[in-house]
């Protein structure tokens, strides 16, 4: 199953916004999406209308159980988006970051093994390159790196790409870099400079269109809603996510040409 991990070592760059935006776009197309929240902060969980404090199975339970296929028991319907399901997170997931027991890197992949019925699985990674990210990368078929047009965020991209290389070499040979999403593009000179830099360094790996900085994204996050619910303000941003969702879907059919190697 097409399983895409969204990542950057840096926080606040738009990983969760991109996952939710693309999930909502896939839902608009009538596709079935499973979102997995791998961040103990549980922003994705809450944006999709779930409460991390609810007494239901979550991703931490699924990983901890070390049981093939158990993730199916942690799936819930999102609070909005008819085709969106979620495996939610909770603060307890932070404990998995320090679980270095042999084989623990494979536990999310093992928990998801045999799962079917989804067109796409989207994994929202925490802002790190630690154990939780490795769990996500071992379970994924593709990595999408999300970056802001800023120097610190671009350093985070480099570090994530090294982690992808290590995971691909040692744990998951199929793991491919799908692309780089540029989020929070604005009209400053710094933004233009860094957008040009990301295009120069990563070339065809950079996905277009870029996601513009728009207040509606933060508003949708705060209201646990879709940007598409925000009328004329939300429409242009929703259309960007629609286009990025097309890039995700293309990974399924064009595995070699649409995936890229950067050195
Ligand atoms: N394109 C955007 N325009 C405006 N605000 C954004 C945009 N993308 C993200 N944000 C806001 O920036 C903050 C960080 O985004 P988030 O998706 O949570 O990042 P991450 O998951 O990488 O930590 C959030 O408050 C979010 O609402
Ligand atoms: Mg996040």
UniProtKB/TrEMBL annotation:
Supply the Gene3D superfamilies for this chain.
P-loop containing nucleotide triphosphate hydrolases
Q: What are the record keywords, sorted? A: Plasmid
Q: Name one Pfam family in it.
A: AAA_31
Q: Taxonomically, which superkingdom?
A: Bacteria
Per UniProt, residues of the AAA domain are 3-176
UniProt name for this protein: Cobyrinic acid ac-diamide synthase
Instruction: Supply the source organism for this entry.
Output: Kineococcus radiotolerans (strain ATCC BAA-149 / DSM 14245 / SRS30216)
